[in-house]
Design a protein that fits this description.
Layout: H1 2-38, H2 44-60, H3 65-86, H4 94-115
Helix pairs in contact: 2-3, 2-4, 3-4
Length: 121
C-alpha cells in the first residue's frame, strides 16, 4: 500500500510538473505573439528616418525627384502590406513582422544607394 501511494504521488507530481512546464511555454509563446501583434506594423522611428533621408536627398540634390517618387511609392507599398496583414483578423504574426522588417531594411539600403549613386538633378 505504501509503495502504491508513493508511485501515485510521483505520478501526480510528474503530471503537475509537465502541466506547469507546458503552461509556462504556452504563456511565453502567447506573450511573444502578443508583442508582435501589439507592436505597430512599421517601426515609426525607422519610417521617420527614411522620410528625412528622402526629403534631405531631394533638398541637397542627391536624389532626383523621380528617384524620390519611386522610393516613396515603395514606402507606401510597405505600409499598405502592413495594414493588410494587420487586418487579416489576428494581427501581425512573428513571420509577418519579420517580412515587414526585411522590406523596410531593404528600402533603407535602397535609399542610401540612390543617394550615393552620383545622379544629381
Amino acid at each position: 500500500m505504501m509503495i502504491q501511494n508513493r508511485i501515485l504521488n510521483l505520478s501526480v507530481a510528474s503530471l503537475l510538473s509537465v502541466t506547469f512546464v507546458s503552461a509556462t511555454i504556452c504563456a511565453g509563446q502567447a506573450d511573444a505573439r502578443w508583442f508582435w501583434r501589439k507592436s505597430s506594423s512599421l517601426d515609426n522611428n525607422q519610417s521617420h528616418q527614411q522620410n528625412q533621408m528622402i526629403n534631405n536627398g531631394v533638398a541637397t540634390g542627391e536624389l532626383t525627384r523621380k528617384e524620390a517618387r519611386k522610393l516613396k511609392k515603395k514606402k507606401r507599398e510597405i505600409a499598405r502590406d502592413a495594414r493588410d496583414m494587420q487586418r487579416s483578423g489576428r494581427g501581425l504574426s512573428y513571420s509577418e513582422a519579420e517580412k515587414l522588417d526585411k522590406k523596410q531594411d531593404k528600402l533603407s539600403r535602397e535609399i542610401y544607394k540612390q543617394s550615393t549613386d552620383n545622379d544629381y538633378r
